[in-house]
């Protein structure tokens, strides 16, 4: 990350955003910092059309400030929500930070919950895209309650392939009976294993037609 694109270090917030407990004070410091640099509009306004080179440079400065002012855990969470350095704008970055803090509209949370318990692997092109959607919904739900029982994830994930892949469900059920308690990481590993097998089969099929 280019140091030239960072605002002066003296203007940075003195503490990184760790969670909802320090979000309000962190947000005030971020906004004050950007106001001093006359860049506060990048948090709230849509990008101009076309995007000038100066605007893009300023927007990257704001993104870099936000990136350096949040904890690694929050960086991971916004990446899971689809954030990408070089692709997301400062406004999108700021909005995703608020999303992972649980500061999301109630209707969006309701939508994630409804989708989560109705997911069916047959509606997805690949196993990996099914797993990605499961994790996306789960991340939305755990922003409001980090102590959600992992059994909910296991139930939703396995019910999502129970009818389409009964042999998987039987395999999972036999394996889970040997575990103390099925976990989110265990079912994710199970699905990733099948995703790799699926991708390997598709690769060998494609090479057969080359």
Describe the protein in words.
- This protein has 9 helices and no strands.
- Helix content is 60%, strand content 0%.
- The model has no long low-confidence stretch (mean pLDDT 83).
- Helix 5 crosses helix 6 (127-142) and helix 7 runs antiparallel to helix 8.
- It has helices spanning 23-36, 53-68, 72-80, 90-100, 106-116, 127-142, 150-162, 166-176, 184-208.
- The longest helix has 25 residues, at 184-208.
- It is elongated.
- The protein is mostly helical and 210 residues long.
Mean pLDDT over all positions: 83
**Annotation, overall tally of beta strands:** 0
Poorly predicted regions are none
Span between termini: 41 Å
- Output the structural class: mainly alpha
Strand portion, in percent? under 5%
Number of helices: 9
Q: Give the C-alpha Rg.
A: 21 Å
Listing every helix as H and every strand as E from the N terminus to the C terminus, the arrangement reads HHHHHHHHH
The proportion of residues forming helix, as a percent range, comes to 55-70%
- Characterize the largest beta sheet: strand count, sense, and whether it forms a barrel: none
- What does the overall shape look like? elongated
């Amino acid at each position: 990350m280019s140091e030239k694109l960072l605002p002066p270090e003296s203007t940075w917030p003195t503490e990184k955003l760790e969670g909802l407990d320090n979000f309000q004070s962190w947000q005030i410091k971020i906004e004050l910092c950007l106001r001093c640099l006359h860049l506060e509009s990048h948090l709230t306004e849509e990008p101009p059309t076309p995007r000038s080179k100066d605007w893009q440079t300023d927007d990257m400065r704001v993104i870099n400030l936000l990136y350096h002012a949040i904890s690694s855990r929050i960086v991971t969470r916004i990446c899971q929500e689809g954030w990408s350095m070089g692709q997301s704008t400062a406004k999108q970055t700021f909005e995703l930070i608020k999303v992972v803090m649980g500061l999301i509209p109630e209707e969006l949370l309701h939508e994630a919950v409804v989708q989560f318990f109705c997911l069916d692997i047959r509606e997805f092109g690949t196993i990996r895209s099914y797993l990605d959607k499961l994790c996306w919904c789960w991340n939305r739900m755990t922003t409001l309650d980090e102590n959600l029982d992992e059994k909910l994830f296991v139930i939703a994930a396995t019910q999502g392939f129970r009818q389409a892949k009964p042999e998987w469900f039987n395999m999972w059920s036999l394996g889970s009976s040997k575990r103390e308690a099925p976990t989110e990481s265990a079912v994710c590993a199970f699905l990733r294993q099948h995703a790799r097998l699926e991708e390997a089969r598709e690769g060998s099929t494609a090479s057969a037609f080359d």
